[in-house]
């Protein structure tokens, strides 16, 4: 619980400081810091969704709703789809997060959609749109209880989290009327989009961007262990603690019930067992600038997988790769 208090206090202190300083020299620093703290709140809510924040289910739900609603994430809708991701990690059709497109589906997309999917900065702004309509080839919404993401007995959960989301949206609308659109854009709007970029950046690189192409599976070739071992650890340097050690992603996928504050020691314990199947992350300086290259390289080459076969690797669309080369 101390992590929640710390992060909330920092968020409020940053907002108060920005309001006092109100300088265009100070605002960019505030946006970067506050957006990063919004991301830290998301990671704590993520622990609640896994049930690793507390042994008390009701406490997980209350804290998760408060944290995620404050950054416009429908807690239960996300929690359930994220559970689907963990249960099917590395599966071409059944995974829920940044899964590859089979070639036939990829080719069915119009050229502008394909370019947006792989041209920066657009993939780093995807999360709110994913919440509303999911990924290409999948239907439904994280806000609607009738979405095929959810079971009939989860309808009440989805209505609850959607109501909390609407309450937060209403609060933001009221504050916009009182404080003015520009002030709310500076205090909340820009940090929100910084948070979205952090979320997309981190979650994408946990499943893409290794120097060696990693497999995806379907059919009998897939297993929970195989899928979990295709995830990647990342080092974020000075930000590791602020990220609540979310970069220790492999052991998190294999054992999602481990709370974030034990992930580092759990990873060290798992390394000798995993052996060659563990990929040591590149070490970061104070800030993870090295990961921008991994992101750009992956978006340039990882476009679709074959429609057939059980062990698959990303293939490259020469046109997208050529456009990326030209723009680079």
Please explain how this structure is put together.
- The chain has 328 residues and is an all-alpha fold.
- The protein has one domain.
- It is built from 14 helices and two strands, in the order αααααααααβααααβα.
- The chain has helices spanning 2-21, 27-50, 57-70, 75-87, 103-108, 111-118, 127-133, 155-179, 181-205, 224-228, 249-254, 263-274, 290-301, 318-327, and strands at 216-217, 311-312.
- α1 packs antiparallel against α2 (27-50), α2 (27-50) crosses α9 (181-205) and α3 (57-70) runs parallel beside α8 (155-179).
- It is globular, with a radius of gyration of 20 Å.
- The model has no long low-confidence stretch (mean pLDDT 92).
The overall strand count is: 2
What order do the SSEs take from the amino end to the carboxyl end, as H and E? Answer: HHHHHHHHHEHHHHEH
- List the strand order in the largest sheet: 1-2
Report how far the terminal alpha carbons are from each other: 45 Å
Instruction: Tell me the major beta sheet.
Output: 2 strands, antiparallel
**Strand fraction band?**
under 5%
Shape category: globular
The amount of helix comes to: 55-70%
* Helix/sheet category: mainly alpha
In angstroms, what is the radius of gyration?
A: 20 Å
- The pLDDT mean sits at 92
Give the number of domains: 1
How many H/I helical runs?
14
The low-pLDDT segments are none
């Amino acid at each position: 619980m101390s992590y929640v208090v710390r992060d909330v206090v920092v968020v409020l202190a940053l907002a108060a400081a920005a309001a006092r300083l109100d300088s265009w020299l100070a605002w960019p620093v505030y946006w970067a810091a506050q957006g990063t703290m919004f991301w830290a709140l998301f990671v704590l809510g993520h622990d609640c969704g896994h049930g690793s924040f507390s042994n008390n289910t009701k406490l997980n739900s209350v804290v998760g709703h408060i944290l995620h609603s404050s950054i416009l994430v429908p807690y239960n809708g996300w929690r359930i789809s994220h559970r689907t991701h963990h249960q099917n990690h590395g599966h071409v059709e059944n995974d829920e997060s940044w899964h590859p497109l089979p070639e036939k589906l990829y080719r069915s997309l119009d050229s502008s959609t394909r370019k947006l999917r792989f041209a920066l900065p657009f993939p780093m702004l995807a999360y709110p749109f994913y919440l509303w309509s999911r990924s290409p080839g999948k239907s439904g919404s994280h806000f609607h209880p009738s979405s095929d993401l959810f079971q009939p007995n989860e309808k009440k959960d989805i209505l609850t989290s959607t109501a909390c989301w609407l309450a937060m949206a209403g609060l933001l609308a009221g504050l916009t009327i009182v404080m003015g659109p520009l002030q709310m854009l500076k205090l909340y709007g820009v940090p929100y989009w910084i948070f979205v970029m952090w979320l997309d950046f981190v979650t994408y690189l946990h499943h893409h961007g290794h120097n060696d192409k990693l497999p995806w599976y379907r059919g009998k070739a897939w297993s929970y262990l195989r899928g979990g071992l295709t995830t990647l650890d990342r080092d974020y340097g000075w930000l590791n603690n602020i990220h609540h050690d979310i970069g220790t992603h492999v052991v998190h996928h294999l054992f999602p019930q481990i709370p974030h504050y034990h992930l580092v020691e759990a990873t060290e314990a798992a390394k000798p067992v995993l052996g060659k199947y563990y990929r040591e992350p590149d070490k970061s300086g104070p800030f993870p600038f090295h990961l921008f290259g991994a992101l750009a390289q992956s978006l340039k080459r990882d476009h679709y997988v074959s429609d057939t076969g059980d062990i698959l690797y990303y293939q490259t669309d020469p046109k997208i790769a050529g456009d990326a080369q030209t723009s680079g």
